[in-house]
Amino acid sequence: MKNLGSIFAAYAIGWGIFFVYFITVARRTVALREDLERLKNSLNRGK
Amino acid sequence: MRLLSNTATLFGKELRTEFRSRELLTTTIVFILIVIVLFSFTFDPTASESRRFGPGLLWLAFLFAASLMLQPCFLREQTNDTLAALRLAVSDPFAIFLAKLAANTLFLLFTELVMLPVFAILYNVPILGVFPQLLLVFFLGSLGVSVSGTALSAISAQARMREMLLPLLLLPMLTPVLVASAQVTVGLLNRSPFVEWKGIGFLVVFDVVFLTALWLFGEYLLEE
Amino acid sequence: MKRYAFCGTLVVLLVSAAAYCSLLLAPTESTMGSIQRIFYLHVSSAWTGLTSFFVAFLANIMYVYRREPRWDWLGTSAVEVGVVFTSVVLVTGPIWAHPVWGIWWTWDARLTSTFILWLLYISYLLLRTLVEEPERKALFSALFGIFAFIDVPLVFGSIRWWRTQHPQPVVMGGSGSGLNPVMWKVLFFSWFAMVTLMILLTWSRYRLEAMRGDLDTVRREAEVS
User: Fold this and answer.
1) Which residues of chain A have pLDDT under 70?
2) B136-162 confidence digits (pLDDT tens)
3) Which of B88, B177, B189, C55 is 20 to 30 Å from C215 at the Cα level?
4) Domain of C153, in residue numbers
């Protein structure tokens, strides 16, 4: 197959972009969930 | 026709405000002049090259100038806290936009017409034969710039980094205006001039579409 | 959570199946050879990006008239996901063009319009970071999103017209040039797989935004008490 490198690069980079975005969103979601839990706990303790 | 009479009154106010100081017009004219001169260093300004590159660069200069000139449009109202008063004074908030965009179109057109002979002399392009047609494309292009620019300046006036934000929002949105206006102007400055009616058509469509959008959604731009 | 994991698995399967079809099942194109297979990823991403921006447009209109935060959350998620898909289009285009034409970028009509589209929606995301008050941020980005979307056909139309005046090599061949029925099927299947990916990514991003909204509400409650 001619230009195998370019085909591989295109698909790898394309999927890479989707994957990186997904991971970024997942990480931020986990961090935010932890913040939310912490805040809820401190509120409950305050009450 | 409350809308028209309100618009006329506000339009008069816009003109009076500007002609009291004339600072917007003078700074815009000088800015376009500087850009036109600087452009001469970017290519070889022979007659044939100027005909090819000149119109695009001229319109680019107008677009940059407009994105600076349109900043004070709503910022002025914000710093002087007059927007609430304006909204109370009119029944239809669209009148405020109509007045401002009419004024902005006029100011832009004025600066463009002042700069046109300067451009023609500096770059050796003939304009007298096609002056009415140039006036048409300048008017339609300036209207397009003003409609989107006035709407977006209402947004940028209330954001941080507003000096950078307005060009950032406005310039990509004005791509169709730049493309169509530059193409029509190239046709008019050709050795055998012709009117690119498709380009004129694009400009008319752009103006109508954005005017309609502004009429539908403008009042939300002015919410407190 | 179970629903989410199930959908995620489904999306991975569909995208893998689409990749298999594009890379192995689809017939090799006669003039360009195997490099043409990038077309399935490139075009399906482009169509999905536009679909995402259309979803954002609808969400923006709903927000302006209803003022419910969930429409703002959907709008911004759909725009972000649309920008991701459009980025893939802009990256795969040059990777395709370079072996075929020897140059990375040709200013062809569709790629140039896609670039402007990308810039327009990057501006949308920048606008959101520069307006602080949450309701104003939501309203202004919704209004800008509406103006941006109605500009899209004008951008594509004007640039295509301009390119007929100044022809350049067209990336990916002209529209529908030399596509046999199998290729069309693979393309539509790829688009379908990409749309499911779009839904998954938008859902993930929406959850993040909704959670942020919850956090703000809880914080405000904490301040009050």
Assistant:
1) 1-2, 47
2) 999 999 999 999 999 999 999 888 888
3) C55
4) 33-173+181-219
Closest alpha carbon within chain C to B187: C165
Shortest CA gap B22–chain C (Å): 31
Considering only CB atoms, C131 lies closest to which of B158, B199, B221, namely B158
Within 8 A of B205 by CB-CB distance, chain C residues are 154
Residue of C91, C145, C81 lying closest to C115 (CA atoms): C91
Kindly list the distances between the CA atom of residue B193 and the CA atoms of A23, B53, B138, B190, in Å, as whole numbers in the listed order: 57, 16, 16, 5
Residue C19 lies in a domain: no
- Global ipTM: 0.92
Domain spans of chain B, in order of start: 2-221
Percent of residues in chain B assigned helix, strand, coil, to nearest 5 = 85, 0, 15
Model-level pTM? Answer: 0.92
| pLDDT, tens only, B22-55 | 888 999 999 999 998 888 888 777 778 888 888 9
Helix (H, G, I), strand (E, B) or coil at B195: coil
Nearest of C130, C129, C124, C135 to residue C75 by alpha carbon: C124
Nearest alpha-carbon partner for A15 in C32, C42, C27, C105: C42
Instruction: Number of helices (H) and strands (E) in chain A: give both, helices first.
Output: 1, 0
CB contact under 8 A, B173 and C151: yes
Out of C144, C155, C159, name the one closest to residue B155 (CB): C144
The verdict on a CB contact (< 8 Å) between C158 and B180 is yes
Question: C201 vs A32: CB contact, 8 Å cut-off?
Answer: no
Cα gap B115→B219, rounded to integer Å: 35
Between chains, do B213 and C157 touch, taking CB under 8 Å as contact? Answer: no
Q: Give me the number of domains chain C comprises.
A: 1
A23 in contact with C at a CB cutoff of 8 Å? no
